[in-house]
Design goal:
Elements lengths: L12 H9 L4 H10 L2 H4 L3 E4 L1 H19 L3 H10 L4 H10 L1 H8 L12 E2 L10 E2 L6 E2 L3 E2 L8 H13 L20 H7 L2 H17 L4 E3 L9 E4 L7 E2 L5 E2 L13 H10 L2 H12 E3 L6 E3 L6 E3 L9 E3 L20 H8 L4 H52 L7 H30 L4 H33 L11 H31 L4 H15 L2
Length: 537
């Protein structure tokens, strides 16, 4: 699959937007193809900054307002109640307009009002009225089109409390008990103070993302204010302009080849409580009297259940019998003949079997977890290395007169390493549960074959960038060596470039194969044959 290839170039906000809004013109499109990977040019989604979210929201509201012939305030309410799905709103509206208005908290077309109006009997009669909330006589009460009037102070207090409660303020209804009229934006603007009005505007903007299943916030744990809007079929991965890559369905870091369910299981297993239980099962036994778990922290078999939290019972670690029945005749402190006799009779078989299974499961989990973390650390290291590369590229340009475009392969290679590290990291999660479900079989063996090859090639590529590149950076700084002519160095560097580019393509191929063919035994078999023949050529 093309979108599993690599992270050669993280698109900027402008590139992401322009990539969705135009098909590309002649030479410009060709130039982009040299730099950007296929998935960056064919993204089925748009990356939006905060300002772009506002622009997109305003366009949606205006479109709905023009289409349905309603005010923009009413259009906002209608869209939000219909999850910002204009097609769904349009169908409901033209099937039954009055019912849709009522469901969304709007009045009839003739009575709809978006600005505060004096309640009946207010200014028109000049008679003071009692506010239903504060019970104070007022010259005027203000109401929505439902006619439930309240004084301006009570409106301010009510709307302030709505904003203070959070983003549900955009769904605020009339203060009257059991009245379903939605409070429009104009009321918040009129009755809220400056701080709360700004906060309401933020909730108003966020509604386009929070109430819209086609738009999600970037899930970068380091913090990112971008939002992503889908424009087609759900993509497996989102590459935000902040350089974070995440999974659209579950919001976690991109985790192929592991699926979302597997990642959820892995995260639960990594919780301290879950692994504490595994450790207790593998390394402790229960006191025969109070059944509290006890760890053996010395060599002899004489165990004493601690009185602090336990019962003080003394017993044998091997047979769990009362220690008073033990002595030199039973083997002493370091051997228990009673246990040996009982073991031969099969009395402890199930207990030992359970404990050894728990220990094996814990050791196996640690094996996969350590490799998961190793690739995670190596992946994060590439971010620091890319920052260092930003300083090294100008040095290579100044020392050897390399054109900057000739050095772009270093960024591509490093980003490919990062992409492979992430794939390898999650491949161990997939492998952990694959082995758990299939102790043997061609799929498991072939998966491990692809994983091993990707790991080997990616480590070689990473080593080239970490070590071989340093030769060119430090060559002219060694005082004890005679400097080579620049022409010779340039030739060597071009050979290094060709080597790195080749390994970048190879690792991309292996990563694509393991992501694309996983789960299909036929494809995995074809892949193994292809890769095996390729390695001998």
């Amino acid at each position: 699959m093309e979108d599993s290839a690599s992270e050669f170039e993280m698109p900027s906000d402008d590139e992401a937007m322009s990539g969705q809004q135009s098909d590309g013109d002649g030479d410009d499109g060709d130039n982009e193809m040299i730099i950007e990977p296929p998935e960056a040019r064919k993204m089925p989604y748009v990356i939006m900054t905060r300002d772009e979210i506002g622009d997109r929201q305003r366009r949606c509201i205006k479109h709905a307002s023009d289409l349905l012939d309603v005010s923009q305030a009413d259009a906002f309410v209608l869209l939000r109640e219909n999850t910002w799905d204009l097609a769904r709103l349009q169908e409901a509206w033209f099937n039954h307009e009055d019912k849709t208005r009522q469901r969304c908290g709007l009045g009839s077309a003739s009575s709809s009002a978006s600005v505060p109006s004096a309640a009946t009997g207010g200014h028109a009669s000049g008679v003071q009225q009692s506010c239903p909330i504060c019970m104070t006589q007022r010259d005027a009460l203000f109401s929505l089109d439902c006619g439930h009037g309240f004084c301006s102070e009570c409106w301010s207090g009510y709307l302030h409390s709505q904003v203070d409660d959070g983003k549900a303020a955009v769904q605020a209804r009339c203060p009257q008990h059991k009245c379903g009229r939605t409070v429009p934006v104009s009321f918040f603007e009129k009755y809220c103070d400056q701080v709360r009005w700004q906060k309401y505007q933020e909730w108003y903007l966020f509604s386009f993302v929070d109430d819209n299943p086609s738009v999600k916030w970037c899930t970068n744990p380091g913090g990112c204010k971008n939002a992503i809007e889908l424009q087609g079929v759900d993509p497996p991965e989102i590459r935000c302009s902040c350089a974070f890559v995440w999974c659209w369905p579950c919001g976690e870091e991109a985790h192929r080849p592991a699926d979302c369910k597997t990642v959820h299981q892995w995260n639960i297993k990594n919780s301290a409580e879950s692994e504490n239980i595994s450790w207790i099962r593998a390394n402790t036994k229960k006191c025969p009297k109070c059944h509290k778990p006890i760890e053996k922290n010395q060599g002899c078999n004489h165990m004493v259940c601690s009185k602090a939290g336990g019962c003080g019972f003394e017993f044998c670690w091997q047979c769990l019998g009362d220690w008073s029945t033990h002595g030199t005749s039973t083997g002493g402190y370091y051997q228990c003949n009673i246990y040996d006799k009982q073991a031969k009779e099969g009395k402890h078989h199930e207990e030992e079997k359970t404990r050894m299974q728990a220990k094996h499961a814990l050791d196996r989990y640690i094996f996969f977890f350590e490799r998961f973390m190793e690739h995670d650390r190596a992946m994060k290291l590439t971010v620091k290395e890319e920052a260092e590369l930003e300083k090294q590229v100008p040095q290579l340009h100044d020392d050897y007169n390399f054109d900057v475009t000739e050095l772009h392969f270093l960024y591509e290679a490093l980003r490919q390493v990062r992409c492979c590290r992430r794939g390898l990291k999650w491949s161990y999660v997939h492998g952990y549960y694959l082995e758990e479900g299939k102790d043997s079989g061609s799929e498991k063996n072939l998966f491990e074959y692809l994983q091993r090859n990707l790991e080997e090639k990616n480590d070689l590529l990473h080593e080239m960038l970490e070590k071989e590149l340093q030769i060119f950076l430090k060559r002219e700084k060694d005082p004890g060596e005679e400097s080579l002519p620049k022409e010779v160095v340039q030739k060597q560097f071009m050979e290094f470039r060709s080597k790195v580019t080749n390994f970048t393509n190879v690792t991309q191929k292996f990563l694509t194969q393991i992501l694309q063919d996983l789960g299909s035994e036929e494809k995995l078999t074809q892949t193994r044959t292809t890769l095996s023949s390729g390695s001998h050529s």
